Every structure is written in C-alpha cells, then in structure tokens.
Amino acid sequence: MNNKDSGNSQSLRRRIAGAFILMAFILCSFFSFASFVAVEMAEAKLIDHNLDKLTNQIIGQYVSKQAYELPPDVNFYVDEHIPETFRKLPDGIHEIEVDEKEFHVVVRDMHGQRFVLSDDTTDFEDTELLIFAAVTAGFVASMLLSILLGLGSAKRLIAPVTALAEAVERNATPSELPSLDTKNEIGVLARAFAKRTDQLQHFLADEKLFTGDVSHELRTPLTIMLGASELLKVRLAQSPEDLAVAERIRRVAAEASERVSALLLLSQSPETLERTQVSLTHLIEREIERCQQLLGNKPVRIVFEDAGHVWLHTRAELAGIAIGNLLRNACQYTQEGTVKITLSTERLSIEDNGPGIPENVRERLFERFVRGKENPYVGSGLGLAIVKRVAEHLGWQIAYARPDSGGSRFILSFPSNLDATAVQNDKNLS
Keywords in UniProt for this one (predicted)? Predict the structure, then answer.
C-alpha cells in the first residue's frame, strides 16, 4: 500500500501533505512580504521623514543666518558648494549610491537658492540587508520544516485509513477490520465496511448454497431421464422415427446434466477448481452440432476456422457453457449469412452478420437482464452475463467488437494459455 502511495500523485497522503505545504508557503510568503513592507515603512519614517524635517529646519536657520548643528554623517550644501553627484537631482527626496555608499539626499529649491542635505545611510542599508537575509533564511527554514511536518502529519493522519485499506485489500473478515471501536469518521467508515462485507459474504454464501442445492436436486431427475431415454432407445431400436426422438431426448437430458455439473463448478472458488487438458476444437465442433438444430431452415452457414488442434487447461463443462451461449446467440440472431468461428491458442472469435448490439446497451452488455428492447429476438438477458461470469471464473477475458460489415463479434481470450505457450516456446528454444 505504501509503495502504491509513493507512486501515486493522487494519494491521500500526498494530498494532505501538499495542502499543508501550500498553506505554509502562503503564510510564510505573507509574513515575508509583511516584514519587507515594515522595513520599508520604517526606512521612510525613520530616515526620509526625519531628514525632510531636518532639511526644512537647517534651511530656515541658514536663511535667517542662525547657527546650525548637523548630526553625524549628515552634510549640508548650498548652490556652488553642492557636489557634482547631487547637482542634477530634481527637487525631492532621493536614495542613491556613491562609491559603494548609500545616501539619502533631500533637494530643495527655495528663496532663489538650491539646498542639498545628504545623509550617509550605509550602516542602515547593511542592517536592512541583514534583516532581509534573516527573513529569507527564515522563509526557507520554515518551508523545509513545513515539508517535514506535512509529510509526518499526513502519515499519522492517514495511518488509520491506510490500515483500513490494507485490511480491505487482503480480504480481512469484518471482525478483523481496524478502528471498529473508534468514534471518529474512520470508525464510521470501518463499521460501514464491516457491515457491507458481512452482507456480501452472506449473500455469496447463500448464492453458492442455492446454486449447489438446485444443481444437486436436478441431478437426480436428470439421471432418471437419461436412464429412461437409454431404455427407450433399446425398446425402439426397430422404429427409426421413434428412435430419433428418443435420441433427441437423451441428448437434451445429457446436455442439461452437463449444465448442472457446470453450475456446481461455478459454486466453487476458482482456486479450488480442478482443471484438465480439454480439446477446444472438439468442444466447439460439439457445440456447432448442437446449434445446427437451432438454425432449422434458415439460410445460415457456420464456418469454423481453427489453427490446428487447440488444447486448453480448463474445465470442459464451464468452457462449454461460455462457448455454447455465444454460439447459440449468433445462430439465433442471424437470419441469413454466416456465423464465423476463429480459434487460435490465444483466443476464440465468434462473429455473425446479424443485427448487432444496440448502442444503448453496449456499455452494460454483460450485466444481468440487459437486452435491446427494440430487437425482435429478445432473450432473457442472462446469456452474456453467464458467459462473463464463467470467463472470470476460468481466468479468461470476454470482449465485444462491431465488425465493419455489421453484426457482432465476441472474443474470448485465454491469458493463461498464452503464458503456458510462451513458457513452452522458451523451453523448445533452449
């Protein structure tokens, strides 16, 4: 979970830390700006304002020919005694640098004369630079500290959420979920997870029990039907027409028995499912034979293209359900043309040139009871949902595509078989 968080820029931990750091940046920027403004205001108040008052005082004393006394680092110039550096300055207060020294200069044109009062503020400017350097260092230190505190605080804040997420990810039982007894929002979330998990577990358990019970109860009458049909075939051996009917009854009962066995397998966990090597080629040929009866007199041709004899490590009962449903759908919805089956070691494709899947149901195609109402050949809406469930149970993948020529194309992919083929190829190469 931590590895996922570190690689995910949208993780809760990063969001909290980012918000903390952003808030610290805004506050530090505000206080740094306030400090800069305060220093500038202090400079204007302490130096420029006082120097302006002092200039007016000295000029008054000079004009009235009174003795005046200048503070340290302050110089007063009149007309031709004004240094060349200050002569071109306009009337007002100025801040200039002369020979790496900072001066605040007040220029006055009064009584037909030009007066200049200069103050050497190099020491103040150096102090000002030290203040700005201290503020900058404080800003950088505050940001570094906020990053450390943000990351640490975020880790502590989401620790209960992380623990809950890890427990959910490892499929912990409802009683094992952390924070169940806490009174905060995490506790509410944990109790909601526990309640929902408990409901889902009971639902799944009931579904498995129902599937197993129904399948078990159906096996007995189906076994009796199979036995009766076998006996009927023996007794009708001399009547070919009646024998064909008996054979059909036996075949349907055998198919129903296979479906019941498949339902029992679906009630098991995929990890406990025992698999054997199954010939998909033979399985498809058998399903084609069964679907021929559905076509009746329709001008529909089933074309089977395979890349040799394909074997797959799976269960024939479940594979037969998936392939049979797809093939029956193709035959049912195709009124004329071709149902094309393409088989390779990686995938199985079943394509028809029927009406296709309406756009309004494509996104929910594999959900239960979803079907196109405008289609005249409306089924129960369960066939594709069953195919999806069987595919997931076997570790397969099911996808839908619409061919350019119209109709539908369903593709069953076998990732496990692809991996096994790659391993076998590596062994052959070595």
Answer: Kinase, Membrane, Phosphoprotein, Transferase, Transmembrane, Transmembrane helix
| Whether the Cβ atoms of residue 380 and residue 369 lie closer than 8 Å to each other | yes
Q: What are the residue ranges of helices labelled H in 44-120?
A: 50-63, 84-87
Which residues share a beta bridge with 339? 302, 352
Report the chain's terminal Cα–Cα distance, integer Å: 38
Q: Quote the pLDDT of residue 372.
A: 55
Residue 3 has pLDDT above 80, yes or no: no
Give the pLDDT score at 7. 45
Q: CB-based burial of residue 315 (10 Å sphere; 0-12 exposed, 13-18 middle, 19+ buried)?
A: buried
Half-sphere exposure of 277 (CA within 13 A, CB side): 4
3-state secondary structure 271-318: HHCCCEEEEHHHHHHHHHHHHHHHHCCCCEEEEEEECCCCEEEECHHH
- Residue 252 has phi, psi (to 5 degrees) of -65, -40
Most confident of 23-27, 67-71, 380-384: 23-27
- Dump pLDDT digits (tens) for 216-245: 566 667 677 777 777 777 777 777 777 777
Mean pLDDT, residues 356-369 taken together:
80
